[in-house]
C-alpha cells in the first residue's frame, strides 16, 4: 500500500484501518435503520375524524377497529363518509392496517349486537363491509415478535380454549392463529360464544375474545404474562394512553385526547 509513491508507516496503516472499520460500522447502522419502521396505533374511531391528525404517511398506521356506532350524535352520512375516507387512505397507503372491532363485527356476524347498533342502516353497512373486506387485515396484527395488536386484547383463557396450551408462541404466531380462526369461524369471537359468568353483560368473563375482553380482566389473565411480549388494544375508553402492568397498552383515548401510540422496531 502506498501514498504518493511512498510506503505507509505502521501508524498511517493503523489510521486507515480504523477509518475503514468506522465507515463500515456506519454503513451497517444505516442499513439497520433503513429496515426499521415506526408503527402508529390509533384507537377506536366511532365516527371521529381526528385520525386524520394522527396518521403519518411514512409510518405503518394501525387502526384497532370500531369505525361506526358513535357516542356523539353524528349523522349516518357523515359516519360513512369518514369510514370511506379511512378506506381511501388504506388504498393510497397499502401498509395501513385495518382491524375489526366488536362494533364492526355485529354488522356482518349473525346474532351479535353491541350497544348503539344502527338497525336502521344495518343492511347498508353490512354491504359496505362486504364490499371492503379485502382491505381489512383481520382481528390481530403482530409488530415483529414483540407486540400484538388486537381490538380488546387476548387472555390466556380464551386463547387456550381455542388453540390448546399456550407454550410461549411469539406474537406473530399468535396473530396468525387468531386470524386463521377468524377466517374460518367468526362466531368464535362473539360475546355469546365466550361468556361464562352469569352476570357478565360487559365483557368481564376471562374467556371473552379479543373483541370483548375488558382491560382489568385482561390484566389478570394476560396471554403474555411472564413474557417480554406486549399487547396494544382499544375497546375500553381511557382519558389518555394507558399502560397497565408494563405490558398492556390501551389506546382508546380519542374521546378525550387526540393521541396515538407509536413504537419503532
What would your notes on this structure say?
- With 265 residues, the chain is an alpha/beta fold.
- It has nine helices and eleven strands.
- Strands 6-7-8-10-9 form a five-stranded mixed beta sheet, with helices on one face. Strands 5-4-3-11 form a four-stranded mixed beta sheet, with no helix packed on it.
- It folds into two domains: 1-35; 38-264, 4-Layer Sandwich (Purple Acid Phosphatase, chain A, domain 2).
- It has helices spanning 10-34, 51-54, 76-92, 102-105, 122-132, 156-163, 171-184, 191-194, 215-218; strands spanning 2-3, 6-7, 38-42, 60-63, 97-98, 140-143, 147-150, 230-233, 242-244, 248-250, 261-264.
- 34% of the residues lie in helices and 14% in strands.
What is the ordering of alpha helices and beta strands? EEHEHEHEHHEEHHHHEEEE
Mean pLDDT: 89
What is the number of E strands?
A: 11
Main sheet, how many strands, which sense, barrel? Answer: 5 strands, mixed
Strand order of the largest sheet: 6-7-8-10-9
Structural domain tally = 2
Helical residue percent? 25-40%
Outline of the structure:
This protein is an alpha/beta fold and 265 residues long.
Layout of SSEs?
Layout: E1 2-3, E2 6-7, H1 10-34, E3 38-42, H2 51-54, E4 60-63, H3 76-92, E5 97-98, H4 102-105, H5 122-132, E6 140-143, E7 147-150, H6 156-163, H7 171-184, H8 191-194, H9 215-218, E8 230-233, E9 242-244, E10 248-250, E11 261-264
Parallel strand pairs: 3-4, 4-5, 7-8, 8-10
Antiparallel strand pairs: 1-2, 3-11, 6-7, 9-10
